[in-house]
Amino acid sequence: MLSVHKITNRNVNIKMVEELDIQGYIVRKADDIFYQKTHEWVTDNGDGTWSMGVNDFVVKMLREIADFQLPEEGEVFEEGDIIAYVEALKTTGEIYAPFKLEIIEANEDLYDDPDVFSESPYDDGWLVKFKKLEEPSEPLLDAEAYIPYLKEEAAKH
Amino acid sequence: MKTPVYTWHKEHGQVIDFLGWDLPVRYSDISTEHKAVRNAAGLFDVSHMGRLEFLGKDAEMFLNSLVPRDIRDVAIGRCAYTYVLNSHGGFQDDIIVTHRGDDDFMVVCNAGNYDKIVSWVRTMLNIMNQMHPLDLTFNDFSSTSAMYALQGPKALEILAKVFEGEPIGRWRYTTGKIAGVDIILQGTGYTGEAGCEIIIPGTTVDEPEKALKVWTAIIDAGEDFGLLPIGLGARDSLRLEAGMPLYGQELDEFISPVEAALAFPPFAKIDKDVTFIGQTPFKKVSEAGIEKIRVGLRMKKRGIPRTHHEIVVDGKVIGEVTSGTKSPIFNLGFGMGYVEKEYSQIGTTVFIRTGLREQEAEVVGYPFYDPSVYGYKRD
Predict the structure, then answer these.
(1) How far is B304 from chain A (nearest CA, A)?
(2) B322: contact with A, CB 8 A cutoff
(3) What single DSSP character describes residue B247?
(4) How far is A157 from chain B (nearest CA, A)?
(5) Count of other CB atoms within 10 angstroms of residue B92
(6) In chain B, positions 325-344, which contact chain A (CB-CB < 8 Å)?
(7) How many CA atoms lie within 13 A of B22 on its CB side?
(8) What topology does CATH give the domain A31-135?
(9) Cis status, amide bond into B367, omega within 30 of 0
(10) FRET partner for B222 with CA separation of 20 to 30 A, picked from A2, A139, B107, B213?
(11) pLDDT for B307 beyond 60
C-alpha cells in the first residue's frame, strides 16, 4: 500500500511524503526523514533544527500511554544517551539521541494530552526539537534502510 | 504451556509468554479491565498457579513444619495465607493453605515457584519417609485442573447466578457445581476486592470441556453486571493497588518476612512449638531488627516508579523500587519498594530516580485506594 500526501510539517515547508504500510505499520518516507534502529524518526527541519518522535510501530507496541519524561531546553546529550521516556502502563519506551545534541524544546503538550502521541506520532505527537552539535558516528538510516529493522522486530510480535 | 481455556484467550485476547505459559496480557486494554474489577467484576484464568493436595493423618504435621503459620489453627473449611521459607529465612514462595476436611489440605502456590515447591515437597517427603513412613499422600493436580478468579463488587452476585451450593465468605472453602461441573470454591483473590477463586478438577488442555463450560457460564452470567475477562496486565496493577506483594518483585529468596512486613500473626507464628524450616534465621532477624522494609510509594505529581528505580533522599540512595505502575483509579504513579527503616514512616517525602530526573514521592500505607470507596471493605 502506498499513498502520497502533502504534509505541512510544523510550519516549515510543504514536503512530499510517502506513507508506506509495512506489515500494518506506517513508515513515512521523504528525503529529510531518517530513522534509528530503535524506531525513532528524526527530521531535518531545514532551519538548523531537528525534530524527533517515534514511529507507528512504537505506538502500537506501547499501547496504553500513561506518561512522558521529556528533557528541558538547554540540556546536552551525547549520541546514544536516553533523552526521553515514553511510559506505557506495562513498559517504558526509551528515546535515544541520534547524535550529540542540545535540546531546544520538548513537546510538553503531551503531558496533558497523551492521546496526541498515539494518534499523530509523526506530526503533533513529536517529542523533542534540538540542535545538532556533532555529526553522528554512522549515517542516519533513510526509510528504505530502516525497513528491514522494522520487519525484523515486527516478526517477533 | 497452555491452560485448558487457551483457545478462548487466543480468540478474545492478546496472548503473551508469561513464565513459559501462553496467557492473555489483556483482552481490551489494561485500564478498562482494571476499572471493571474495581467497579463491577472481572474473571481471570489463573490456571498457571500450582495446586497441590496433602491427604492423610500426617498432612497437618507435614505442612506445619513447612510454613511459619500454625496450621493447627486453621479450621476445616478455612483458607490461610502464609509462606514457605528457605533455610536462611528468605522466601521460597507465598501460598494459600486450605483445610478442606479431616486429614485433607490443599496448597495453591505461585506459577513461577511451582517446580521449586513441588521438588521441595517431594524431597522433604522422601527424607521424612525414610526416617519414619508417613501417612501422607501428596497429589499435584495442577495439570489436571483449571483455576479462575472472579473478583469485584459484583462478583458474588454473579457467582450466585451460576453456583449450585452454599455461598461462602472471605477465606472460606466449599464445593459445589457451576454449569453442572463439580468445582472447588475459595473466598480468596489477589485484587483487594470481594470475590472468590474457583478450581475445576478433571480438566486438561486436551480435555478442556469442563473448564470452558465453567468459564463461559460465568462470562455469560456476568454480562449484565459489567463483568470483563481480565488479563495479566490488570492482574498486576490490581494486586499492586491493593498493596499485595508479588513473588519475584517484592519477595525473593533473600528477603525476610520481617523486611517484607509480613511477619505478623496469623501469617506467621515465629515462636511456633513445631519447628518449621527457616525458623531460626526468621527469629534472629525478627529480634535483631532490620535495615530495610517494604513500603508503599505514591508519586506527588508526575512519574511512574518502576522495578530497580533508586529511591533517594538528599541525593543519598536509601532504597529501591520493586514494582510500580500508574493507577487507572487515581491517575498517579505508585508502587512498592524497600527503603532504609528510618525513611519508612508514612508521610515521608522521598525522591525516585525515574530516568531523566528525580521525582517526588511519598511513603504511603496500603491499600493505595480509599477502602471506603474501593475494595472488599466498602459498603
Answers:
(1) 8
(2) no
(3) B
(4) 9
(5) 24
(6) 325-326, 328, 333
(7) 14
(8) OB fold (Dihydrolipoamide Acetyltransferase, E2P) (2.40.50)
(9) yes
(10) B107
(11) yes
Bridge partners (DSSP) of residue B44 are: B149, B230
Task: Judge whether B347 and B300 are in contact, CB under 8 Å.
Answer: no
Point out the domain boundary residue: B240, B267, B302: B240
CATH number for the domain that contains residue B344:
2.40.30.110
Q: At B267, list the grid cell.
A: 501469617
Q: Tell me whether residue B201 is in a domain.
A: yes
Q: Among A83, A85, A89, select the one facing B30 at the smallest CB separation.
A: A89
Q: Which residues of chain A have pLDDT under 50?
A: 1-3, 6, 8, 11-12
CB contact under 8 A, B356 and A71: yes
| Same domain, yes or no: B38 and B155 | yes
Q: How far is B149 from chain A (nearest CA, A)?
A: 21
Give me the residue from A67, A71, A90 closest to B30, CB to CB: A90
> Are B302 and B227 part of one and the same domain?
no
List the single residue in B233, B325, B355 with the smallest CB-CB distance to A69: B355
Give tens-digit pLDDT for B58-85.
Answer: 999 999 999 999 999 999 999 999 999 9
- For residue B156, tell me if it sits in a domain: yes
Angle at B259 between CA B257 and CA B262, to 5 degrees: 40
**Of A30, A58, A37, A26, residue with least CA distance to A152:** A37
Of B240, B256, B277, which residue constitutes the final position of a domain? B240
Residue B207 amino acid letter? E
Number of cross-chain residue pairs from A and B with Cβ atoms under 8 Å apart: 46
What are the cell numbers at A44? 531535518
